[in-house]
Each structure stands twice: as structure tokens, then as C-alpha cells.
Design a protein that fits this description.
Strand content of chain A: 5-15%
Distance between the termini of chain A: 63 Å
Order of helices and strands of chain B: EEEHEHEHEHHHHHEHEHH
Number of helices of chain A: 18
CATH class of the largest domain in chain A: Alpha Beta
Structural class of chain A: alpha/beta
Largest interface: A-B, 54 and 42 residues
Radius of gyration of chain B: 16 Å
CATH architecture of chain B: 3-Layer(aba) Sandwich
Number of helices of chain B: 11
Largest sheet of chain A: 7 strands, mixed
CATH class of chain B: Alpha Beta
Oligomer: heterodimer
Radius of gyration of chain A: 22 Å
Helix content of chain A: 25-40%
CATH topology of chain B: Rossmann fold
Number of domains of chain A: 2
CATH superfamily of the largest domain in chain A: Type I PLP-dependent aspartate aminotransferase-like (Major domain)
Strand content of chain B: 15-25%
């Protein structure tokens, strides 16, 4: 083992990507709320456009505030680079659209966020990219679904909303055996709980809306490149390995080496799809990220207390949380998520849909809304909201029952949370 | 492009432009375990400013066939062979770290082939820490860590890349991680055993520029600067705050200095 060290995780959450501003001495990251940047000369402008010099041209492509965030998440994930996008959905789309076009195919976990499911099952299908959904626990199902035109395997670190633990080492080995990258949505875990690149993943995206920013005030996304996937050896990704007429005939794998994917994503996708993050949003995400370790620790502590309360309560049919011994992925969770299994979990109230609805309408401290990963605790009934477009068989395939309640545990005093939940459960059981 | 040199298929990055007759040339030489991608920005700049560019992957590195050359002098001969195949009679020769020793050796052994020299992150001698050599032989991932972490200033460990959105340490670590097994040790051993450096430096007659990082702990700038006392027509530029990986830490400043010597 090397004894040479760099800065630790907590230090990087505070500092990575940014140095004090040389012209003003400002310690905090400035918000460069600017659309564009003045060139020193015509040649300077041409050099920037042509990737001969480092710098900024237009904030749809790069922005100095966003760049701090991008470096920071790349540092925390152990990657080579990142792009900040307008939303997690935009990050997912950017990654897919960078690698493949019409006639391509994805094999995806079936236990994923409803919005991602929509993108894969409906919208991208219209653009000629098809997806096969499989049980995330069934590696053979992933293998059987791979076709000659498959270009990616995909899953979430913690399945949504059933919290299956994605066996990233096993899945990445399968993907690589077929010359394919594994993309992982690590929104629920953040790099504090899980670093998918360390486990073999090739691309990560986050909804920075959630735990990364952590305060429910922005919408944003991040796509991160591990720099490890060998696009040339795979020989399945012409966008990586052939000259791109849309950008000076650039051959991204040849010219950028490890940063090929994120560079193509920026030079084409950020430029053409345009789903950039506002620098003000990037600033907010950075503010949240500075306390990521502290917040995630408290999220986990609170979640454990709430789970412990629920498992003993008569009104509860079951609690689904991988830290519980009866969860099918309990051992895998101990191995892959030693710091904890996040702050989002589900439970079922006795009495099905009606009881669930009474619970939600009674609680006052928990906020009933469509989000997770806020500092405040949140609650939702997936079957009628985030997964409402899924038909009955799709819901069942995703492990969602009609009475399932999803809780995103925040940073409140845990006794206050338990008291609020107790009141909700009492109301749910009234005849 | 690929070219045949010394019976090996060598990859040469030309800055995304084909060579044209009548233009002056710039040859770039990478450092230990690396490849042509470290020269992306300056290679593209000079290629699009009326120069022919040749940034080869040394044998056994990047996309080039092996075996890797085992001495600095042999590496220099390999670069000259590539220049021969590419039809480049004389060039501004730019080298970083180990590549700077190769550039120095090239200019000394083949003086007509180098019309100017740029030595980036250089020192002669370029002694290699025992623990790095040992790790390169027995634990390559540890050697990659060492080369990466020692290769940047402490400030750069926190980022602030002039290239937006790229984490410098991550990119270097991944690049070094691609090196073929054994190559990092071969390269470091070649640096450590380059005994002709001072003699070669004394024989240099072409204009020479040393670009040194004030915070470089791999090739201490005070040693690199001593070359200016030995090489007749030479000067030193110190980049304040920069570590060893100068093209990554300060790409625009390095390019501005190269423009003056190329």
C-alpha cells in the first residue's frame, strides 16, 4: 500500500476545486453569474474555441462556479471530471446521449426512480434507444438481456423505492466482460456512503437536488467520469473513438485519454442539449456539499432511530431497510455500504392504501412532497405520485405495493420525528 | 497517426492536423508512464499556428508498440527514428520530466535535429526516490499514487484547474494506471541511471528554456536551474506555486513560454 497521501474526504468536501480568488482574496466560491467571457485577442478567442488553451467561452459549456462543483464531485468520487447539469434527469440523458444513438439498447435495473424509468421506457424509445428492465438482484437476467446493440448497463446504488443494493462489483464485471460501461445513479448514497468507481462502475450521475445539496432549495444534476473505461478496446463507441465532425474532427479517446467521455459530453452534449446548471445553483450545491459528511452521519443516525421505532410498532406490516437483518441484501449492504444504507426507506402501514393516505395527511413535521434528501424529513406515497405512470405489473416488478410509504429522514431532533410518526400511525389505524 | 520507426509501430499525435511541407516542427516528449495526451493543448495550439507537431507515445507507452526503451539515450534514438519517418529534419524539442532528459539527450547526440529545447519540470541528475523505485517494481498502484501525489503542488491537490471540470489528480492517476506493466519501473530506472546528463548539457548549443515549478518536489527547481549555468544559450522561467505537472497545473503559462522558444 502506498503511504503517500492526499487530502481526506472531509477536507475535499470543503476545498476541492477552489482556491481563494486571486484578485479579491475572497475565500468562498464566487458566483460567476455571467453568460460569457471577454477574450484577450482574436487569437485567444480562436484558441479557446479550438481547445488550444484552457479557459471559458460561454456558460452553457463551462462556468467557473460550476467548474468548482465539477472538480469537487470528481474528487470525492475518485473520477477524472464531471459536468453540472440542470437536473439529475439531464445528467442521465447527457450520459446516455453521449454514448449512443438510435438503434442502441440499455439493460437497466427495474427498481429505479420513476422519472428515470419514464426516460428509458418511453422517451428514449421514441428516439430509437430501447431499454430492457430486469430484477437488479438477478445477474443472470442482466446477462440474458444483453444484445449485440447493448451499450450500457444501469442501476441505482439503492433501488427506488425498494432499496435493493446494487451489486456493483458483480455487475461491473459482467458489463466489462461484454465491453460495456456500467452507469450508476448514486443519488441516495452520495460519495460519503458509496464510491461506485471504487467498486467498478464507469459513470456516475447524481441528482444534486437531493442529499448532495441537501436542503431542498435547488434542482440540479451531475455526471461524473471514472476515466477507467477503455473505449478503444471496447470498439463499440464511435462517439468516443472516431473523428467527430461536429467539433473539429476531434477523436476524444485519442486526444483526451482518460477524460474522453466527459470531454465529449461537454463539447457536444453540454453545447447542443444545453441543459446546463445555473452558477447560482452550483453555489447552493457547493454550500450543501461542504457539510455532506456531517449531514449524512446525522441522516443515518436519525434513520436508524426511526427504523427501530417502526419495527416495534403494531401498525406496521413491514419495514424495508437494508440494515435490518431480514432484508435480502443485508449482508451485501454490510459489505458495500459499511457507513450506512442511506436515509430513504419504505414501510407499509396496516390497512393498505386508505391507511397510508391517513398517515400522510396526519403527520405535520414530515412534509408530504415529491423529493428526498432534504435536511427536513419528507414523506410520500409512490404508487400515486413518483411511480404513478407505472402499470400494475411494472409496479409489482419494481417491488412497490399500494400501501408503501417512503420516508426520507432529515436532520430534525429524532424524538420529534418519532412523535410525529406515532401520531400518523395512530390516525392510520382508526376505523 | 501511426508510423513505423525502428521496426515498431509508433503512435504520433499531430495536434489534429496533418503535416504540411515547409512548416517548422515541434516535437513533444512525455514523462514517466505517460503518453501524448499530456500535450493536448500545446500540440493543438502549435498545429493550428503553422507548425508540424509530433507528439509520439514512446515505445511501450500509450498506443505505441513495445518494448519500452531502457535508457534515456535509447529513448532519444527512438524519437529521432520517429522524426525520420515523419520527415522532420529539425524541430523545437519539448520534453517534460523524463521527457526533458530525452530531449536533452536528443539535442546532445543529434545536435542538428534540435533547433531549440524546452525542458519542463527538469533536473540533472534526476534521482528517483528509493521507495518510488521499489514500489514501481513491486506495487505499481502504490507507484502510481506516489507519482500522482508528488507530481502536484499541495495547492493543486485541492484543484482549481484552469481546464474547467477536470480533476487533475484523478486524470493523472488514471493515465498512469493505463501504463503497461513494468513500464513505470523501466522509465524511473532510466531516469535514475542517466549519468550523461551533465556532459550532454555542456554540449548543447541551441537556445534552451527551462520551465520549472517553484513547488516541484520531484525535480527540485534549484537543481533544474543549475542547468542554466551549464547550457550556454539558456534561460530559466519559474512558475510560482506550481508543482511538477506544469502542463496540467499551469497550461496557459506553459504555452506562453513555449511560444517564445519554439
Amino acid at each position: 500500500m502506498s503511504k503517500v497521501k492526499t487530502f481526506g474526504f472531509d477536507t475535499l468536501t470543503l476545498h476541492a476545486g477552489q482556491r481563494p480568488d486571486p484578485s479579491t482574496g475572497a475565500r468562498a466560491t464566487p458566483i460567476y453569474q455571467t453568460a460569457s467571457y471577454v477574450f484577450k485577442s482574436a487569437d485567444h478567442a480562436a484558441s479557446l474555441f479550438n481547445v488550444e488553451r484552457a479557459g471559458h467561452v460561454y456558460s452553457r459549456i463551462t462556468n467557473p462556479t460550476n467548474a468548482v462543483l465539477e472538480e469537487r464531485i470528481a474528487a470525492l468520487e475518485g473520477g477524472v471530471g464531471a459536468i453540472a447539469t440542470a437536473s439529475g434527469q439531464a445528467a442521465c440523458h447527457l450520459a446516455i446521449a453521449t454514448l449512443m444513438g438510435a438503434g442502441s439498447h440499455i439493460v437497466s435495473s427495474g427498481s429505479i426512480y420513476g422519472g428515470t424509468h419514464n426516460l428509458l421506457d418511453y422517451t428514449l424509445r421514441r428516439f430509437g434507444i430501447e431499454t430492457t428492465f430486469v430484477d437488479p438482484r438477478d445477474i443472470n437476467a442482466f446477462a440474458d438481456a444483453i444484445r449485440p446493440n447493448t451499450r450500457m448497463l444501469f442501476g441505482e446504488t439503492l433501488g427506488n423505492p425498494s432499496l435493493e443494493i446494487l451489486n456493483i462489483p458483480e455487475l461491473s464485471a459482467l458489463a466489462h466482460e461484454h465491453g460495456l460501461p456500467l452507469m450508476v445513479d448514486s443519488t441516495f448514497t452520495t460519495p460519503y456512503l458509496c464510491r461506485p468507481f471504487d467498486l467498478g462502475a464507469d459513470i456516475i450521475f447524481h441528482s444534486a437536488t437531493k442529499f448532495l445539496s441537501g436542503h431542498g432549495v435547488i434542482i440540479g444534476g451531475l455526471v461524473v467520469d471514472s476515466g477507467t473505461f477503455d473505449w478503444q478496446a471496447s470498439n463499440k463507441f464511435p462517439t468516443m473513438t472516431e473523428p467527430y465532425a461536429g467539433f473539429h474532427n476531434m477523436n476524444f479517446a485519442e486526444e483526451f485519454g482518460p477524460a474522453a467521455f466527459i470531454s465529449r459530453a461537454r463539447r457536444e452534449g453540454a453545447r447542443d442539449f444545453g441543459a446546463c446548471m445555473s452558477p447560482t445553483t452550483a453555489f447552493q450545491v457547493l454550500q450543501g456539499m461542504e457539510t455532506l459528511p456531517l449531514r449524512m452521519q446525522r441522516h443515518i443516525e436519525n434513520t436508524r432511530k426511526v427504523v427501530a421505532f417502526l419495527v416495534e410498532h403494531d401498525a406496521i406490516e413491514w419495514v424495508n431497510y437494508p440494515e435490518l437483518p431480514e432484508h435480502p441484501d443485508h449482508k451485501l449492504a454490510q459489505q458495500l455500504l459499511p457507513r450506512g444504507c442511506g436515509a430513504v426507506f419504505s414501510f407499509s402501514v396496516r390497512g393498505g392504501r386508505t391507511a397510508g393516505q391517513r398517515f400522510i395527511e396526519k403527520v405535520e413535521l414530515l412534509s408530504h412532497l415529491a423529493n428526498v434528501g432534504d435536511a427536513k424529513s419528507l414523506v410520500i406515497h409512490p404508487a400515486s405520485t413518483t411511480h404513478h405512470r407505472m402499470d400494475a405489473s411494472a409496479l409489482q416488478a419494481a417491488g412497490i405495493s399500494e400501501g408503501l410509504i417512503r420516508l426520507s429522514v432529515g436532520l430534525e431532533d429524532p424524538q420529534d420525528l418519532i412523535q410525529d410518526i406515532e401520531g400518523g400511525l395512530k390516525a392510520s389505524q382508526k376505523a | 497517426m501511426y508510423l513505423e520507426a525502428n521496426n515498431k509501430e509508433i503512435f504520433a499525435y499531430t495536434g489534429a492536423r496533418s503535416h504540411e511541407a515547409g512548416l517548422q516542427s515541434v516535437v513533444f516528449i512525455h514523462g514517466t508512464g505517460m503518453d501524448h495526451t499530456v500535450w493536448l493543448l500545446p500540440a493543438r495550439f502549435f498545429a493550428h499556428h503553422n507548425f508540424n507537431v509530433l507528439a509520439t507515445d514512446l515505445p511501450g507507452h500509450g498506443n505505441s508498440m513495445g518494448p519500452a526503451a531502457t535508457s534515456i539515450e535509447q529513448m532519444a534514438d527512438e524519437v529521432v527514428a520517429a522524426m525520420d519517418t515523419a520527415g522532420i529534419s529539425s524541430a523545437a524539442v519539448v520534453g517534460h520530466s523524463m521527457g526533458s532528459l530525452v530531449a536533452l539527450s536528443l539535442a546532445a547526440q543529434h545536435p542538428k535535429r534540435a533547433r531549440s529545447l524546452a525542458l519542463i519540470g527538469t533536473s540533472v541528475p534526476m534521482s528517483v526516490h528509493n521507495s518510488l523505485l521499489l514500489n514501481a517494481k513491486k506495487d505499481e498502484s502504490a507507484a502510481v499514487d506516489m507519482l500522482t501525489y508528488w507530481g502536484y503542488s499541495k495547492a493543486a491537490h485541492l484543484g482549481g484547474n484552469e481546464n474547467p471540470g477536470i480533476w487533475m489528480l484523478g486524470n493523472t492517476m488514471r493515465l498512469l494506471g493505463r501504463a503497461k506493466s513494468g513500464v513505470i519501473h523501466i522509465d524511473l530506472d532510466a531516469c535514475d541511471n542517466y549519468k550523461n546528463g551533465l556532459k550532454h548539457a555542456e554540449s548543447i548549443r541551441c537556445p534552451t528554456l527551462m520551465i520549472l515549478g517553484k513547488r516541484d518536489i520531484m525535480t527540485p527547481p534549484r537543481i533544474g536551474a543549475e542547468l542554466s549555468q551549464i547550457i550556454k544559450d539558456s534561460r530559466v522561467v519559474f512558475l510560482e506555486g506550481a508543482g511538477h505537472s506544469l502542463m496540467m497545473e499551469r497550461p496557459n503559462d506553459v504555452l506562453d513560454e513555449l511560444i517564445r522558444i519554439v
